[in-house]
Amino acid sequence: MMTRKRLVRGLLLGPLILAGAIQSASAEPPAPADEARAPAPPMRLFGGMGKEVKISPGEEKVLFERAGAGTLTHMWFGGDWPAWGDTRIRIYVDGEERPGIDMALFLGHGIGWGNDAAPWGTNRVGKTGRPSGVYNTYRIPFGKGVKVTATMAPSVRDPQVFWWIVRGLTDYPVRLGGITLPPSARLKLHRLDKVRAEPLKDVTIADTPARGLLYAVTFEAISDNFNYLEACLRAYPNGAKEPVWMSSGTEDYFLGTYYFNAGLYHNPVAGLTHCDPDRPGSSYRFSAYRFHEDDPVPFQEGLRLVWRNGEELDGHRYGDPKPTTLTSYVWTYEW
Hints:
This protein is mainly beta. 4% of the residues lie in helices and 43% in strands.
């Protein structure tokens, strides 16, 4: 029997904080009723695709490039080779030399440990084939231009055939839940790769000084038991010294329970994309995603997110966590 949580923590975002973020992110006040309003510019569709295009080992292949302003709204990828899920997708916005989004193909869509389960899908991410058919509808705004590239994993030694679709719109307002983001908002990925954490060690998975909103979180972890899932996720918005408690456990944050004992699930808010059995001889691996579109987490003067390997609260240690290796993807809209 696993250790049960004994404490209840308030999971509250102050209404003044949320109201401030919504006010800062909303559109400009409407013009007076008696003042003529200029019509909104028409949205224009743009996009591109690749069909059976060869990518060479070590090549950073440009999949799509466009100058000007707009928003990417859809990407789909297809292929079939060993380590296909480790293909690196990079998105350069507004002339960035270092991409603000640099993701492994599977983990960038919430899929860990190369799990090939399919078909499944939500409005934001999914995998429809075995293999292949990975898609997203992330809203990725840009002001001066955008470039999307792909590079195969270093272990791939031969050219491979790749398929892709990239599509978007001009003059498309980006909304997170009911909040309209300012034109300067940009989607950023904060990534940790294979960080080893000792028992009860705090791991900062994101730390930004900007203003913005948390968008999504993906975890991939492995250990010698599942007691690391006892960890409560902590948020420190605006330089706070005390945390806002984001969960009563790691599986709880991803909307699971009892160490994910019901198996894999995929829903619009959260999903469990891999989970080893909770029994002796297991590798105790899991991967999961969580979106915050309808569960806003705003910040005005920075945000720090902290995960702990296991948990200890008020002198009580929950279970016996072992050294754990964590990969985390934290997505934020910042401006």
